[in-house]
Structures are given as structure tokens and as C-alpha cells.
Write a structure and sequence with these properties.
It is found in: Membrane. It is a single chain. Helix content is about 65%, strand content about 0%. It is mainly alpha-helical. Among the domains are: about 70 residues; about 50 residues. Helix 3 packs antiparallel against helix 4, helix 4 packs across helix 5 and helix 5 runs antiparallel to helix 6. The longest helix has about 40 residues. The protein starts with about 25 loop residues before the first helix and ends with a helix.
């Protein structure tokens, strides 16, 4: 039946397209097109779990840290490469300078933030295990500890300042997450 020959008065609503409609296939195949929107899990224990495992946290935080650090570092390095261009250079030489600078900074920043994500995920998962509860305090303590551990080699004063900055960052992240859940319709 062609699209133009349909009469909207005779048909209540349009059906979903089914390429097997003329084959008289039994009903279970027809349910294939009515897919659920909720996640399907193999075991009921997975449905009751409301947080990622420590391994998933490790991959998530380390990956997010590396990718965001590499992106920010590449942008910063590229900007520095553009500023460092000298008069009389060819376009090829300027492009080479920008790419080299962006690649060097991107790798350095990516590795640094990846390590921060690795430390944070280990501390947060360890605190959940030790305290026996998963709450906001674990995230804040993990942020404090991450800053302190990351800058510990620079001395106690630097570690204390970095720990405070890590704690403030963790509080900001938790507050932002709660505000996003409340005010952003998803």
C-alpha cells in the first residue's frame, strides 16, 4: 500500500514498519520491535547494585582523567605553539611547531590527570570497603587524599595545599552532580 493512498480516517494510527509482515511469522518475532528501555541484566544481584565495581571505577576515572588531560594539554600546547611562531616562518614550519607543542603538552597533562584518576579511584573504592557504606564522605576524603598523595614528594606544605584543593574539588563535583540531578531533566 503506497503512502499516498492511505486514508487517515480509516486507519487509527500508523504501525511500525515490519519487513516480515507478509511472511506470517508467529507472535514472538513481532515482539522484537517492542524493545524495552530499561537495562536488561542477567542476574537479579546486578539489578540491586547501584554503583560501579572498583575495577569499573578504576577504568572510568583513569580514562576520563587521561582523555580530559590530553585534550586540555593539546589545546594549551597548540596555543603556546601559535604564540611561539616567528616572523618569516613558512606555514609548514608553523604547523609543525603547533603540532609538536600540542602533542608534548597533551601527553604530559594526560598522564598527570590519569594518575590523579587512578589514585582517586583506588582511595574511593578502599574507603567504601573500609567504611562499609557508599556516601558523599568517601568522595570528599578520597579527594583530600588524592591531592595529598599526588603532591607528597614536594613536601608536607605542598601536600597539605594539594589535599585541600582536592577536597574542594571533590565537594564541588558532588554538589554539581546533585544539582544536575535536581535541575537537569534527563
Amino acid at each position: 500500500m503506497a503512502e499516498s493512498s492511505r486514508n487517515p480516517k480509516t486507519e487509527q494510527k500508523y504501525r511500525q514498519y515490519n519487513p516480515y509482515q507478509d511472511l506470517n511469522i508467529p507472535t514472538p518475532i513481532r515482539n522484537l520491535y517492542n524493545l524495552p528501555t530499561s537495562p536488561e541484566l542477567l542476574f537479579q544481584e546486578e539489578a540491586a547494585k547501584n554503583r560501579r565495581s572498583w575495577g569499573e571505577n578504576l577504568q572510568f576515572y583513569t580514562g576520563i582523567g587521561f582523555l580530559s588531560g590530553a585534550t586540555l594539554g593539546a589545546l594549551h600546547g597548540s596555543y603556546k605553539g601559535i604564540l611561539a611562531a616567528e616572523a618569516g616562518e613558512t606555514l609548514k614550519l608553523r604547523l609543525n611547531r603547533v603540532l609538536n607543542s600540542g602533542g608534548a603538552k597533551g601527553g604530559k597533562f594526560g598522564n598527570s590527570l590519569g594518575i590523579v584518576g587512578l589514585i582517586f579511584s583506588g582511595l574511593e573504592s578502599g574507603l567504601v570497603y573500609l567504611r562499609g557504606s557508599d556516601d558523599v564522605l568517601n568522595t570528599i576524603l578520597a579527594g583530600l587524599g588524592t591531592g595529598a598523595i599526588y603532591r607528597a614528594a614536594s613536601g608536607p606544605r605542598s601536600a597539605a595545599i594539594a589535599g585541600a584543593l582536592g577536597g574542594i574539588t571533590a565537594v564541588a563535583a558532588v554538589a554539581g552532580k546533585h544539582m544536575a540531578k535536581r535541575y537537569v531533566p534527563i
